[in-house]
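Thread: Newbie trying to understand structure tokens

Hi all, I'm a second-year student working on a class project, and my supervisor (Dr. K.) asked me to get a predicted structure for one chain before our next meeting. I've only ever worked with sequences, so writing a 3D structure as a token string is new to me. If someone could post the tokens and maybe explain what I'm looking at, I'd be very grateful. Here's the chain:
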Amino acid sequence: MARQRLLKSHKIIWRVCKNLIKHSIIMSSISKNKIMPKHKYRVSFKTITSASRLVAVLLVAAVLSGVAAIAHADQYDDKINSLENQNSQTQSLVNDLTSQATSYKDAISKLAGQVAALQSAIAANQHKQAQLEQQIAKDQREITQKKAQLSATIKAMYIDGQTSTIEELASSKDLSDYVDKEEYRETVQNDLGAAIKEIAALQAKLQHQKHQLGIVLKSQQQQQGQLAAAQAKQQHLLNLNENQQAAYNHQINANESEIASLRAQQAAANRQLDGSGQVITHGSCGGTYPARASGDYGPWGCNYAHTSDFVPGCSYLDSWGMCNRECVSYTAWMVYKEYGISTVGFGNANQWPGSARSEGFSTGSTPRVGSVAIYMGGAFGHAMWVVGISGNQIHVHSYNDGYDGQYYDHWVSASGLTYIYFGS
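---
Reply by user tm_fold:
Sure, no problem. This is what the structure looks like when written as tokens:
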């Protein structure tokens, strides 16, 4: 669109320049045939030359500024496409990081469960260890007590042993009494000895269990340390991941802000280059575009809000699935209104020629009234409805020239456009 508008501007500038040169020549002729008062300056050949040079400089400056404007306008799309590609690549990295973050979180959750289970086992074993220590202490007290009893018994036996067998027999009532005393001493001694051995064996068993339990506890505590270290490492990786995600998202947001700024600059540049466009304000419809309509996709029309096609999704879709108040929405409406043809699925403006050919419609480079003119440049192109032709200029109606959802009625250059002939 920028190139076509600029060509028209150049033609206007060239006509102005020719008129200026013509005026200079006429003034020169007048100066040769009419004597001016002495206090007035006559237009000399030098003046003509200076005027011509001035006109030439102005013309060159206008052309150069036009070229710069074209380059500048084209650079918008280049910059926007570059930023969008960066965002696409960065978003892919963010998606990968998000997937990695999910893995880290799962690993941290599993490790936390293992640490908790191990801590529960350690607590149970520590409780068991405390019980063993209490039992060992109790057994030790019992052994000490039994040993004291045995010592007393042995001492008594020793004291009794100072008596001779004849004396002991003499002190006994009879032989049976003597045998009973001997058996009692032996039984007490054996019972105490057996009890001490049994308690000592139990104590040794408990000590062994305590030792084994200590080994288990040490191993569990080592495992707990390893799991805690692994958990800390996963958390560190997750923190790095989230920091990277935040940095990438910040970059994406910055690029989106820059894209929005470039869109606004591009729209302003397009409006500036198009001196003949007549903007119909929001709420008023131009080019027969309906104020209110409804279709398979819901309500649409001029009285409904416009959402730029550079923003994902649309506030409203027309009957052909096009974004409301877009250039393709308007041409879709005109094609249906004039020819009863549906353009559902035709896509962005620069996709229309290919879509039309696939549906059997012809395209070309020659404008016709009632055809759709397509500008193929930029990320999406631009669609216009041809209502008149004059030389190399075409009169078009369109929407969203300035990415504003507004109606435009203007003349543009017919060159460099692709035309779709739905009516033939």
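A couple of things are worth pointing out once you decode it. The chain is about 65% helix and 10% strand. Confidence is low (pLDDT under 50) at residues 1-74, 272-277. Feel free to ask follow-ups in this thread.
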